[in-house]
Amino acid sequence: MQTKLIIVSFLLAVTKVLAGGYAGALDRVWLFYAYQIDGLNDPADRTLGWKCLSWDDRENKCRTSKKGVNGWVMCQGTMQPGRRCTFSELLNFIGGADRKEDLLADSSGKPLPLTDTNPDPEQTAKNVYAHFERQPRAKVPDWPGYRIIHKGDEDYMRSIIRVTDLVKKAADDGKNTDANKQLFQRFADTTMQIKTARVGDHGPYLISATENALRERGIHVEKESVGSGHSPIDPMRTWETVDWEKTMSQAVSSGSFSNDDVKKIMSEVRTEFYKDDTASAHRAVIRAFETSESKAKGCL
């Protein structure tokens, strides 16, 4: 019963993580760098910075409209040439921010001009998170693909893949020149930070459930730090996860279990924990960003 309560608590928390949180704030910076990389393509070949005016949830498609291009409209900003969108204009386009919201920051947290194209991912994401926390709902909202990707949909996983593959294609097409390499480096850095944030947010619940499952067997759960070891938005919030290798090693060293026994036990614990669709989806998002990180590094 206690294990079930822990898992239920995890699911309630992980739903918020999937919907936004600090990782969701980082997503916005990630999308901005991808948007800039997409802007290196010819206008007719650009995919990001489009949204559906009226999305049909039942049919999972954009409703046809005379406005825009069959219901799809492009972000119109103040950046020249081409009326490209600034960071705040792009966030306004996606939803939840004013077109002139001061959110950009450098690595020391110092504010940057609205037109800056090279903001620090962590410091800017902290500002984005704080902005949404000040709103009535106090929550970083979800960003469905159809609000940023031309002919995108509401599938978050598919959106991650499409954005990543778009950046990879730009690199493969020779867009990663000396003049543009910083965009690709920033995209890769932000991808890594999103993955780290999601693993860090996920860790406490995985640790609690694993400790509860292994306590009765007398197995101590070893932990490892994730990233810096704490959340950038709350230094008191520890970022740790289960160190499976060390946990298994100390269990075998105790003499109470064989190596095969420990492998079987750990496999059962993980299988039980990820039976729920929401927990499984959270792990899938982490894996998606791990794949994205690998592809992004390959662009450098």
TrEMBL record:
Keywords: Signal. Residues 1-19 form the signal peptide. The keyword Signal applies. It comes from the Eukaryota. This is Uncharacterized protein. It comes from Xylaria multiplex.
